[in-house]
């Protein structure tokens, strides 16, 4: 964090699975956390927020990461993002996820 104040990364390597789809593949479920585990292990503040939908209408998440003890900066950046977008108010249509 010497060059950047915060990092914006994906929450997961893929978009959300359809309901119940990932239960049959434990390895896939494990791999879906791969982008967030290192942040937790490093003790850095991280926040997941909605940032859109894929071509099938399934949600996409973005992760904001800050330096150690940088919770306020991460929360402020997420709040600014929410003030400029409406992704946090949208939900996929039920037919698209079920």
Mean pLDDT over all positions: 90
- Rg over C-alpha atoms, rounded to the nearest angstrom: 15 Å
The number of E-state strands comes to 3
Strand order of the largest sheet: 1-3-2
Spell out the helices and strands N to C.
Answer: EHHEEHH
Helical residues, percent: 25-40%
Please mark out the parts with pLDDT under 50 across 5 or more consecutive residues, or reply none.
none
The 3D shape can be described as flat
If helices are DSSP runs of H or I spanning 4 or more residues, what is the number of helices? 4
What is the percentage of strand-forming residues?
15-25%
Structural class: alpha+beta
Largest β-sheet summary: 3 strands, antiparallel
Distance between the termini: 41 Å
Structural summary, described in words:
This protein has 4 helices and 3 strands. It is flat and about 40 Å long. The chain is α+β, with helices and mostly antiparallel strands. A hairpin with a 5-residue loop joins strand 2 and strand 3. Strands 1-3-2 form a 3-stranded antiparallel beta sheet. It has helices at 26-31, 34-42, 71-84, 94-97; strands at 7-10, 46-53, 59-65. The mean pLDDT is 90.
Q: In brief, what are we looking at here?
A:
With about 100 residues, the chain is an alpha+beta fold. It has helices at about 25-30, 35-40, 70-85, 95, and strands at about 5-10, 45-55, 60-65. A three-stranded antiparallel sheet has the order 1-3-2.
